[in-house]
Amino acid sequence: MITPEQAQERCAELIGLAVKKGADSADAVTSASASESVSVRLGALEDVERSEGEEIGLRVFLGQRSATISTSDFSDEAFAELTERVVAMARLAPEDPFAGLAPSDLLARTGHADYDLSDPAEPTPASLRDRALEMEDAARAVEGVTNSGGANAGFSRSVVALVTSHGFSGGFESTSHALSASLIAGEGDAMQRDYEYRAAHYLEDLPSPASIGLTAAERTIARMNPGKLPSGAMPVLFDPRVSGTLIGHLIAAMSGMSAARRSTFLLDRIDDTLFPASIRILDDPHRLRGPRSRPFDGEGLPTAARALVEAGKCTGWLLNSAAARQLDLPLTGHAARSGGGAPGISASNVHMEAGEISREEMIAEISDGVLVTELVGQGVNGLTGDYSRAASGFRIRSGELVGPVADFTIAGNLLDMFAALIPASDLEMYRAINAPTLRIDGMTVAGE
User: Fold this and answer.
1) 10 Å Cβ neighbour count for 430?
2) Does the predicted model carry a pTM greater than 0.90?
3) Which residues contact 68 (CB under 8 A, 6 or more apart)?
4) How confident is residue 339, by pLDDT bands cut at 50, 70 and 90?
């Protein structure tokens, strides 16, 4: 696979050709990846997959007109044809007053920091198979497990590089080790399924395969013989497996592109107090071995840690260059780029700070409620904030978990939910978006 330096060289070559063809300015992004995974089921090898791919995307500007194009053919002939075609496309594109590269004086020009994202050790297919077998063997040994959906161990290595015609060049490499197991308990109509999945840049940061399998098995058995919930308003607890989705909805609503299009429920509310004053949500692109750590954003700007929510208030829109120009606001380093189009907007490693009350204490305070461990479907209106999701989890009665429940819906409005949110103290930091158990009182539950 190519190195970050080779990827940057390819980007620079393509940009040089585009400028010769008549482009006023351009940027290019190269991505390359190689992955391998081994799946087993019921103790037997089920599948071995390996894939490799490289892609380069080019964006050119002629004044306020722009066009993007991508290819996986890195030959001289392909580069010549691609640059000629994309410049011709740009000549026919409509003018966009907000189009253009990021301001050159804001680019990240110094050496790019290493956030320890690449594990030099690469597993063999045999070691991946052994991890998958260890996971499934541990899970199937748990009493009550009746079948397996399979176990999978995988590894991938990827490279990304970005180069612009006005002075930026950067690239980095990252790796990912992943383990997952899916189990079945019960028979016939009573069957239940659950899983566990973990991924990390370094293998040493993952739990053992056996513990992954045991967790998947225990979750599956705990779901056996689910009951029904009554309909009505009640406290809802969001398990850490799903609580991060609420932050994900907030991040989507904080996108400057949504604000520019006036298509977010935070419009005219971005400066309001939306959360309890104790709530802090942080975005840290520089966390060592963080799932989404990055030294620069998708337009070559330096990244920096910032609070997304401080003292209960959002700290402002997340912006790329186009949104910043349209909203007349300073850039924030949140551009995200793929080979196939103009930059989008994304956060990096995000977490909500833990609260002071333990999960057990939180449950003990509830006379009748529900702990949600799984959400199904989309059910979120980004324009209004209306929220409705199918769910399953565990009934809370008299301060205790009394058994699994399924086939119910929880509903509310995200603005009301944010205002009522209480975090527990059980924060763990291994996902891209991390949150502790969250309690929201007064949500509408549609059950029986």
Assistant:
1) 14
2) yes
3) 57, 58, 59, 60, 86, 340, 341, 342
4) confident
SS3 of the chain: CCCHHHHHHHHHHHHHHHHHCCCCEEEEEEEEEEEEEEEEECCEEEEEEEEEEEEEEEEEEECCEEEEEEECCCCHHHHHHHHHHHHHHHHHCCCCCCCCCCCHHHCCCCCCCCCCCCCCCCCCHHHHHHHHHHHHHHHHCCCCEEEEEEEEEEEEEEEEEEEECCCCEEEEEEEEEEEEEEEEECCHHHCEEEEEEEEECCHHHCCCHHHHHHHHHHHHHHCCCCECCCCEEEEEEECHHHHHHHHHHHHHHCEHHHHHCCCCCCCCCCCCECCCCCCCEEECCCCCCCCCCCCECCCCCECCCEEEEECCEECCCECCHHHHHHHCCCCCCCEECCCCCCCEECCCCEEECCCCECHHHHHHCCCEEEEEEEEECCCECCCCCEEEEEEEEEEEECCEEEEEEEEEEEEEEHHHHHHCEEEECCCCCCCCEECCCEEEEEEEEECC
Backbone phi and psi for residue 255, each to the nearest 5 degrees, phi listed first: -65, 130
Residue 99 amino acid letter: A
pLDDT tens digit sequence for 258-312: 999 999 999 999 999 999 999 999 999 999 999 999 999 999 999 999 999 999 9
For residue 148, what are its two tokens? Answer: 């397996």
Rounded distance between C-alpha atoms, residue 178 and residue 208, angstroms:
11
Q: Judging by beta carbons within 10 Å of its beta carbon (0-12, 13-18, 19+), is residue 97 exposed, middle or buried?
A: exposed
The residue written with tokens 């066009």 in the block is: 67
Residues 159 and 54: their CA atoms lie apart, in Å, by 9
What residues does 410 pair with on adjacent strands?
389, 445
Q: Which two tokens stand for residue 159?
A: 């490279």
Residue limits of CATH 3.30.2290.10 in the chain: 4-221
Instruction: Give the distance, in angstroms, between the CA of residue 343 and the centroid of all CA atoms in the same chain.
Output: 16
* Model confidence pLDDT, tens digit, residues 37-49: 999 999 999 999 9
CATH 3.30.2290.10 describes domain 4-221: yes
Q: What is the pLDDT of residues 80-108, one digit of tens each?
A: 999 999 999 999 999 999 999 999 999 99
